């Protein structure tokens, strides 16, 4: 990778064209710009007919990304999908021209996307637009950090390209995007025409099948998910859903991945892994309860959760697994002895923060950590097999790692929860919960109903 400083876009394009021989070279140009609302930037992409977009907001770090267009994709169902993603991204970075005054976390060439929950699960048409590995390099990436903003422009050049022509095309698109980013979000009032829970009785029977396996000592915990289908009378605008999520779920990662006409989006409380230089941060999030009807009742629920044996056991499975992975790949690992609480609008969770230092690659850590017992179960292999056998759902990207990685190997992946898949007027929403031997199916059903609320609430905002 070639780093250049303080020269213009046209000069960088010209230098890259001269260096290009028999293959195209990535040019990535970063500049600081005036603040723009990332959601309006994201919405502008659709108005100028960009099919692929992304949005990722991390409130804890105050970093928001919005990407428009795609100049490079990794889309594969390879059995070695994590290694394939690493190799393909390394090839692009190796000869890339990157212009920036200095490195800023989350700027420059940045891949956004994710891995499916289970590569071995039989696929359905629900997720036909997405592969088991799907990543995209945006043509235009807006990064907002602590009220400062940067624009990264990415393109590929070949030896026969004209720098002036490319420059004019990029600047013209940039001007259109900035112009459209001044437009407020607006949309017609929608009406729900259909809302269907997919076989709730079958889902509760699946819980009983899993518990039969537990009685035989084959597994200790299995996470089972279910689907809620919603249909509106008109196309569902993902930008309006994101606006509702970022207002209604301020303590969560808010994300969207628009790809080939489908849109996967949500508001998840759970980080899988973040890497900045040699510092890793993760979290253990398992065991939850609802808020009460009053502040006092919520306090009682919180205290009960901290002492509930079932939820503490579920949480312990996650802590032990994440500790084991980090101890294997990192030099130092810091995990508190007992959990605290993480409170979101709809739920209260048992929460343990995790920090570590090491030089492992981010995608290696994603591969090793996914799925944690919070989304799969324990033991992992046995739980995953049971999920394939009894769950009435192709999870696709639900419960899977979604996030980004940049040219320095830094990045962050969240666990895709409280989410849905939009396709035209239709939305499929997903929710799951951890099953242990003494779980009560009806109570688990009620817990998943709570977990549908963030997405249902966001869709309901479109009806006002």
UniProtKB/TrEMBL annotation:
Pfam families: Chorismate_bind. The keyword Isomerase applies. Keywords: Isomerase. GO terms for molecular function: isochorismate synthase activity. It is an enzyme of class 5 (isomerase). SUPFAM superfamilies: ADC synthase (SSF56322). Gene3D superfamilies: Anthranilate synthase. This is isochorismate synthase. One of its GO terms (biological process) is salicylic acid biosynthetic process. It comes from Bacillus wiedmannii.
């Amino acid at each position: 990778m070639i780093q250049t400083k303080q020269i213009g876009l046209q000069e960088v394009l010209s230098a890259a064209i001269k260096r290009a021989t028999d293959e195209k070279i990535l040019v990535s140009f970063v500049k600081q710009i005036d603040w723009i609302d990332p959601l309006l930037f994201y919405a502008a992409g659709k108005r100028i007919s960009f099919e692929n977009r992304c949005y990722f907001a991390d409130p804890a770090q105050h970093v928001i990304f919005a990407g428009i267009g795609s100049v490079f994709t990794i889309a594969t169902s390879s059995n070695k999908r994590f290694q394939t993603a690493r190799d393909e991204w390394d090839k692009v970075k190796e000869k890339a021209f990157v212009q920036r005054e200095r490195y800023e976390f989350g700027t420059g060439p940045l891949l956004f996307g994710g891995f499916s929950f289970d590569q071995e699960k039989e696929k359905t048409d629900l997720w036909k637009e997405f592969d088991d590995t799907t990543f995209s390099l945006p043509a235009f990436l807006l990064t907002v950090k602590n009220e400062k903003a940067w624009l990264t422009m990415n393109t590929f050049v070949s030896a026969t390209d004209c720098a002036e022509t490319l420059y004019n095309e990029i600047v013209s698109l940039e001007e259109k995007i900035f112009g459209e980013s001044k437009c407020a979000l607006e949309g017609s009032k929608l009406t729900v025409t259909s809302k269907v829970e997919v076989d709730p009785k079958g889902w509760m029977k699946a819980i009983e099948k899993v518990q039969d396996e537990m009685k035989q000592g084959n597994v200790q915990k299995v996470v089972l998910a279910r689907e809620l289908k919603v249909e509106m009378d008109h196309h569902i605008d993902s930008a309006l859903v994101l606006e509702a999520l970022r207002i209604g779920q301020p303590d969560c990662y808010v994300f969207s991945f628009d790809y080939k006409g489908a849109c996967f989006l949500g508001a998840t409380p759970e980080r899988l892994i973040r890497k900045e230089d040699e510092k890793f941060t993760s979290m253990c999030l398992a065991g939850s309860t609802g808020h009460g009807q009053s502040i006092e009742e919520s306090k009682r629920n919180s205290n009960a959760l901290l002492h509930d044996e079932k939820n503490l056991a579920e949480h312990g499975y996650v802590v032990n697994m994440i500790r084991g992975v980090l101890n294997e790949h990192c030099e130092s690992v810091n995990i508190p002895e007992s959990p605290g609480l993480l409170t979101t609008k709809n739920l209260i969770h048992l929460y343990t923060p995790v920090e570590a230092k090491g030089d492992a690659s981010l995608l290696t850590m994603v591969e090793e950590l996914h799925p944690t017992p919070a989304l799969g179960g324990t033991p992992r292999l046995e739980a995953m097999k049971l999920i394939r056998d009894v769950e009435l759902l192709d999870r696709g990207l639900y419960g899977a790692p979604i996030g980004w990685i940049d040219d320095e190997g830094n990045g962050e992946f969240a666990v895709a929860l409280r989410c849905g898949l939009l396709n035209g007027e239709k939305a499929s929403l997903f929710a799951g919960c951890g099953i242990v031997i003494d779980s009560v199916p009806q109570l688990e059903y009620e817990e998943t109903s709570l977990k549908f609320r963030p997405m249902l609430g966001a869709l309901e905002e479109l009806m006002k």
